[in-house]
Amino acid sequence: MFDFPNSPSVGQVYQPAGGPSWAWDGTVWKSYQANGETAIARTFIPGGSSAVTYTYNKPANLRHLEFEGVAAGASAGCAAAAAASTWGFASGGGGGSWGKKLFTAAALPASVVVTIGAPGAAVSSQGNGNDGAATTFGSLITLPGGIHGYLGTNVAYTSWNTVTAGGNTAMPTGVDTGAPGESADFPVVGLAVGSSPGTVLCYCGKAGGSPWGKGFPPQFAGAAGLVSMAGTGYGWGSTAGIASGGQGAKASVAGGPGAVLLTEYLAVAPADVAAPLKQTFTVPSTGLVVPVPPTARHVIIRGHLYATAALTPWLQVSHDGTNFFSGANDYTIGGTNHFSGSSASPQKQGYVTTTAITLAPGTDSTFVPMIIDCDFTVSKPSNGQCFGGQTRGWSYNSAGGAAYNASYQWMFHTGAGAINAATNQIAAFRIIPSASTFAAGSVLTVEWIY
Hints:
Blueprint: E1 13-14, E2 22-24, E3 29-31, E4 40-46, E5 52-57, E6 62-70, E7 86-87, E8 98-104, E9 111-116, E10 135-137, E11 141-143, E12 155-156, E13 161-162, E14 177-179, E15 188-189, E16 202-204, E17 213-214, E18 219-221, E19 232-233, E20 259-266, E21 278-282, E22 288-291, E23 298-305, E24 313-318, E25 331-339, E26 347-354, E27 357-358, E28 370-377, E29 387-397, E30 402-412, E31 428-433, E32 443-449
């Protein structure tokens, strides 16, 4: 588990080694959309000294949600004041339980309240500690909090005694995998080595921990006694203090806070994609729509397309992700065609207007793929400029027993107001067959430049 900074400021970034980057939004830690994680979003919700609630709202493009969390830890008992030549002691607090669950989108309601219960409160006068409260994910998951430590009976330096520990919590419910909160150790006290405080030792078992936190390890106490100790991470119990002869009660500190990590697996859409470098797509029979990341400036498309019958692969762009430009004069294209079956090749083509960009010469083959290599701008500095690109494509004509290749330069200007003037960026592009359908095995790789 990462060690998130305490008391972060809004906008503070945490970058653990080997993990994603996180930013604090004032309530929770939000992960950046890292390269290669175009459909993953993480939210880390830390608990506090009191209960913390957070409402999770299911996004429309959610496919799966992974919940992982730990409940708050308990506090140790407060050791009683010790008379001369006696020990006062208590047992440590237990750790909170842990669990993990993978939900399908259909298994979740529109919103779920995450509740991270408060840690077991500190105890300032002799007595038992306090339980940690549960962490819950609506009514779907419950992680029980740690079990409190107990006050022990004071014992003479020349004697020994034990005190009950709280034990493990119940198992979490509603999870795929989980673990109960760990019990504190049973401390043994008054291990007499001599008859004065300086030569008498007291052993106190450690507090309980959790998979996300560690209770303080066992401690020895001499004449100075021992104060209650906090753990590290999340979900730990506090270690009990020990009063040496003539000392007052040893208050306990609170248990450790709980925490929850939510990981969303999302369908790829513009709102999900912050900065992917490369995406690979299997092309459906009727074509492929690719959303453009909000900050992308250029795209490179490579791959191969199989045909079920004679067709030409086309590319069209959209200003809103839904409506694609397909008017007679929306694109301008020109370049060179080469047909290996004709002595008249290559053929030069001047700039002409068209309804779509031709990615490769047409094919009538159902077994030889068309090869695509294309790049173009997806954003431009101002609305008075044009988008531009180039296309290189190869195909095979079985009737003529010949290979085709074409190299085009092209541009498009969508007209005043069609592109968002604030961003001057297209929202999506699509690759479609001019006729018939693409066959199985058609694959494209898309690389983004920012």
